[in-house]
Specification:
Pfam families: Polyketide_cyc2. This is SRPBCC family protein. By secondary structure, the protein is of the alpha+beta class. The chain is about 20% helix and about 45% strand. A 7-stranded antiparallel sheet has the order 1-7-6-5-4-3-2. The protein is globular. The chain starts with a strand and ends with a helix.
Length: about 140
């Protein structure tokens, strides 16, 4: 199993950040790679569409509004991995009311690619996503 984690400080309070990203179907509000999200199964599953028209289906496996994080598993995707589990988390930064740290991490088993290739893929997705979030909040 491989894993990766990317963090980024963003220019908004932790609650403002969570209000934007904390909804499980809210990816299109801040992530250009996902222009469409459809909630299924009472909101516990989301069907995402990327710009190429590919479908990604993810299932919410843990959620804490109070602690500002959620975890999800990929059920179906065009990625070369299995057993994918990811967490998106918002942290307060002591002494900085109008800034927050966002951490996006994941673990997965590469399928047909090396650990390094799978880690590079998701580290790039997380980094680009957090850069887009920063731009949205700036």
């Amino acid at each position: 199993m491989a894993s990766t984690s990317v963090s980024r400080t963003v220019p908004a309070s932790p609650q403002q950040v969570w209000d934007l990203i904390g909804g499980f179907a809210s990816l299109p509000d801040w992530l250009p790679y996902i222009p469409e999200s459809t909630a299924l199964d009472g909101g516990r599953t989301r069907r995402l569409t990327n710009p190429e028209g590919e479908t990604i289906v993810e299932r919410l496996v843990a959620f804490s509004d109070a602690e500002r994080h959620y975890s999800y598993a990929i059920l179906e995707a065009p990625f070369p991995v299995t057993g994918y589990l990811s967490t998106l988390r918002v942290h307060a930064i002591p002494g900085q009311e109008n800034a927050a740290e966002v951490q996006w991490s994941g673990s997965f088993t590469p399928d047909g690619v090396t650990d390094e290739q799978a880690v590079d893929l998701f580290a790039g997705i997380y980094r680009d996503g957090l850069d887009a979030l920063h731009k949205t909040l700036a």
